[in-house]
């Protein structure tokens, strides 16, 4: 089938976006602002506000346990933001570079190296979504206790119950067949 004007996709409202506009949008707005610095700035701002709030809470007369828990949660938030920045920034920076300076597929070795770098940085970026558990385990004794309670007390008990399905009780066997000596004695009677 030859591609002709009848097979071309035509926009319904007459609006087309050129590659230049898409490149400018992704270079100067999407990756730097929406994907990169805006989430980093928002997370940093709120972590600093939380830190400032905890410093103010320490000055007030609150129970020591409450102050300790506030410090723990603030430490977790700060470490979470630091991990977020460290894991997001390299991928965003490389993505902006790759869009502005694309490597043609006609140079296979350079293209393969670029794809490898992109894959590694995207893997590092995806670590950001699973690192919360480990940050919370490291910085919060209360979270460690809760995880221990859930894993050992609840999950382990259920798993042990499911796997030890063998019933260890002694049951009488009602299907006993009479021995030959008993049959002989019954015949003699």
Give keywords.
189 residues; 74% helix; membrane
Gist?
Helix content is 74%, strand content 0%.
Describe what this molecule looks like in 3D.
- The structure is a single chain.
- The chain is mainly α.
- The chain has one domain (7-168).
- Helices cover 74% and strands 0% of the residues.
- It contains 6 helices and no strands.
- Helix 1 (19-59) packs antiparallel against helix 2, helix 2 runs antiparallel to helix 4 (131-139) and helix 4 packs across helix 5 (141-163).
- The chain is flat.
- It starts with 18 loop residues before the first helix and ends with a helix.
Biggest sheet, in brief?
none
Helix content: over 70%
Label the overall shape: flat
How many strand segments?
A: 0
List the total number of helices: 6
Count of individual domains:
1
What percentage of the residues does DSSP assign to strands (E)?
under 5%
Integer average pLDDT: 78
- Distance between the terminal alpha carbons, to the nearest Å? 100 Å
Structural class: mainly alpha
Please trace the helix and strand order, writing H or E for each element. HHHHHH
| Low-pLDDT stretches | 1-5
Radius of gyration: 33 Å
């Amino acid at each position: 089938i030859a591609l002709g004007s009848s097979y071309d996709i035509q926009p319904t409202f007459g609006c087309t976006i050129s590659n230049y506009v898409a490149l400018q949008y992704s270079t100067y707005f999407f990756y730097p602002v929406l994907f990169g610095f805006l989430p980093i700035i928002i997370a940093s701002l709120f972590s600093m506000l939380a830190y400032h709030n905890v410093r103010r809470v320490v000055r007030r007369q609150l129970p020591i346990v409450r102050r300790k828990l506030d410090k723990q949660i603030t430490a977790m938030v700060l470490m979470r933001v630091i991990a977020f920045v460290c894991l997001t920034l390299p991928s965003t920076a490389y993505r902006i570079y790759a869009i502005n300076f694309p490597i043609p597929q006609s140079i296979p070795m350079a293209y393969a190296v670029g794809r490898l770098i992109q894959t590694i940085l995207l893997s590092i970026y995806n670590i950001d979504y699973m690192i919360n558990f480990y940050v919370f385990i490291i910085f919060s004794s209360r979270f460690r206790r809760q995880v221990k309670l859930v894993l050992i007390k609840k999950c382990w008990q259920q798993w042990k119950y499911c796997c030890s399905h063998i019933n260890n009780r002694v049951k009488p066997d009602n299907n006993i067949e009479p021995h030959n000596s008993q049959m002989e004695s019954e015949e003699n009677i």
